[in-house]
Design a protein that fits this description.
The chain is α/β, with parallel strands linked by helices and 410 residues long. It contains 15 helices and 13 strands. It folds into two domains: 41-281, Type I PLP-dependent aspartate aminotransferase-like (Major domain) (Aspartate Aminotransferase, domain 2); 286-401, Aspartate Aminotransferase, domain 1, CATH 3.90.1150. The longest helix is centred in the last third of the chain and has 38 residues, at 271-308. The structure holds pyridoxal-5'-phosphate (PLP).
């Protein structure tokens, strides 16, 4: 470090170095909410763009730049167009914006302009795998909505078409917000969208968890199946920088959405992130299908390998999952191994295997590292030994992890 740096700065530098080593090279990350960013995207994140402003008051619908409060923006504006155009191609959408700073803010970017205060919305309750943000005390309280439950029943928290249609007919919502943090299987979207549109309700699809799988064409295709607006995080199954994006085919909605992106939910966007997101979208344009397929095949193979070894997972009879997630069966985990999901996750963390404390296991990042379905029995064995059996497998994990120094699909 340069002479004159403080003790605190040296400590900070050491912490960042240690984090990068630990998370980037010494663990297998099976957190369903995370992913690894490609080397090129990382370079863009730390580029000069990180500190810049640009505020084009542009209607992307007309494609015409009307004004900008800043100078020096000739490249940022072009970078945004590369990103938005790539998003429209990858998701086969007519309109897209890459400005939302996160998945949560992408949801707000859709809700604030499209769903007025005092509206009634339907959302899946958090106890049934829904996103906490849509629970009554959070986004609905902030925006003045009444939220009614859209049931997602059974151990895999699946939305049943008949129940959803009856709920929509009974509740007459202004919007149906479809989105789950525990998300294994696609929604019966056509049926939901038909019922919602008959009731004059919008269908807003929160793809935060499955965006990368949708990008690869391997989950469901929300726009073709009737969603009006799709939004989500760009860092869970989508292997990009932390952030959000939003797309739609409906010009009438995008005309309301796009101008509201500035000064309602946020002001400046983060242009380094948008460059990195553009890069990720372009990478997925080349190899998104292979990536998404590998993620899902890994998840199903890992589910089968864990179940063979007596780790209880939900939805076994349906092949465990159609996404990047697997869900531990909490009651059975306790019954068979006297363990809660939190204790299991902490035990595994000490052995360099990361899963979350709420019982989800994700395969997006290990697919990026290059682990294939054939590798899942070995991974399942390490998870069983390091978790329920409480063995010290950390050194073995580290040794194996070193065989995967670079990212695939990048
Ligand atoms: C379904 C869903 N929507 C939105 C979010 C919020 O995403 P972000 O952390 O990108 O704001 C999450 C986060 O976990 C989520 O699971």
């Amino acid at each position: 470090m340069a002479p004159g740096t403080s003790e605190a700065e040296r400590r900070l530098a050491a912490l960042v170095r240690a984090h990068n080593r630990w998370r980037g090279a010494e663990v297998f990350n099976l957190l369903a909410s995370e992913n690894a960013v490609s080397a090129t995207a990382r370079r863009y994140l730390s580029s000069d763009l990180a500190g810049r402003y640009t505020l084009p008051v542009e209607t992307s619908v007309a494609g015409e730049l009307l004004d900008n409060s800043y100078t020096g923006t000739r490249y940022t504006d072009a970078i945004e167009r590369v990103a938005n155009d790539a998003a429209t191609r990858v998701f086969r959408a007519r309109f897209a914006t890459t400005r939302p700073l996160s998945g949560h803010l992408a949801a707000l970017s859709a809700l604030v302009p499209l769903v007025p205060p005092r509206s009634r919305i339907l959302a899946i309750p958090p106890e049934q795998g829904g996103y906490d943000g849509y629970a009554p005390g959070f986004v609905p309280a902030m925006l003045g909505y009444t939220v009614r439950p859209l049931p997602a029943e059974g151990p895999g928290y699946r939305v049943d078409a008949t129940v959803a249609v009856e709920t929509i007919r009974r509740e007459h919502p202004h919007a149906v917000v479809l989105g789950q943090s525990f998300f294994l299987f696609p929604y019966p979207l056509r049926e939901i969208a038909d019922a919602a549109h008959d009731a004059d309700a919008l269908v807003l699809y929160d793809a935060s968890h499955v965006l990368g799988l949708i990008a690869g064409g391997e989950f469901q295709d929300p726009l073709r199946e009737g969603a009006d607006v799709v939004f989500g995080s760009t860092h869970k199954s989508f292997p990009g920088p932390q952030g959000g994006l939003l797309f739609t085919d409906r010009e009438d909605l995008f005309r309301q959405l796009d101008p509201a992106l500035v000064w309602r939910v946020f002001d400046n966007a983060h242009w380094n992130r948008i460059a990195a997101l553009a890069q990720t979208l372009l990478e997925l344009e080349r190899c998104g299908r292979d990536y998404a397929r590998t993620v899902i095949e890994d998840a199903r193979a890992l589910g089968a390998s864990l179940a063979e070894r007596n780790l209880p997972l939900v939805a076994a009879e349906e092949g465990f999952t159609a996404s990047h997630q697997l869900h531990l069966d909490r009651a059975e985990l306790r019954a068979r191994w006297s363990l809660g999901t939190g204790a299991l996750a902490r035990r595994l963390e000490r052995q360099r295997l990361l899963i979350d404390l709420v019982g989800r296991i994700g395969t997006a990042e290990i697919a990026r590292l290059g682990l294939m379905p054939d590798d899942m029995p070995r991974l399942a064995e390490l998870l069983m030994r390091g978790g329920p059996r409480g063995e010290r497998v950390g050194p073995e994990v580290l040794h194996w992890r070193r065989e995967f120094p670079t990212l695939r699909f990048a």
